[in-house]
Amino acid sequence: MKIGIAGPIASGKSLVASQLSECLHIPKIDADKIGHEIIETFEIKEKLKNEFGKSIIVDEKIDRKMLGKIVFSDKSKLTALNNIFYSPFRKRILKELSDNDDVILEMAILHQYRLENFLDTILFVTAKKELRVKRLIEKELPKEEALKRINVQNITVYPGDVLVENNFECIDDFKEYLKKLCELLN
Q1: Which 8-state DSSP code applies to residue 10?
Q2: Among 30-34, 98-102, 142-146, 168-172, whose mean pLDDT is lowest?
Q3: DSSP H/E element including 37
Q4: Does the keyword Transmembrane helix apply (predicted)?
Q5: pTM value?
Q6: Rounded distance, CA 107 to CA 124, Å?
Q7: Which one of 4, 87, 123, 183 is at 20 to 30 Å from 114 when CA atoms are compared?
């Protein structure tokens, strides 16, 4: 079974992916991690430097915090980043999916990369905006920056087979909910 987990920032996708991976005993593909690897390839680094300027390069590496500030403050910049990333990222994700019969793909915007046809089930994880802001602040992101990231991402459509609402204040309550979800998927 190939399961996709999508949803906006700070909705709880990583927790859902980890819990289901553990419960179903299948590997997890972390799209963010793959993105971090791709961003450091010479070709992509050069394209990013040309698009966003030399200020995003520190010690010959992409300063992801600086790049994040740029792209999450201007939707056109985020689109430019996605355009640079699209082909190599999609190609790598498709390879990872083809290499695994059973796998969980954690990827916020999997629909933008047209990956739904390669998955058996898609879970869309969501949470109230206020709770997502609170979670980002707890990860030491200033409130203004948290709001920028949430607003520019603007994932409001429910593009999945299963809607997972993570409005739990207590993580243990959400984990209990995920155990029940895992039983249904098993």
Answers
A1: T
A2: 168-172
A3: helix 31-39
A4: no
A5: 0.88
A6: 10
A7: 183
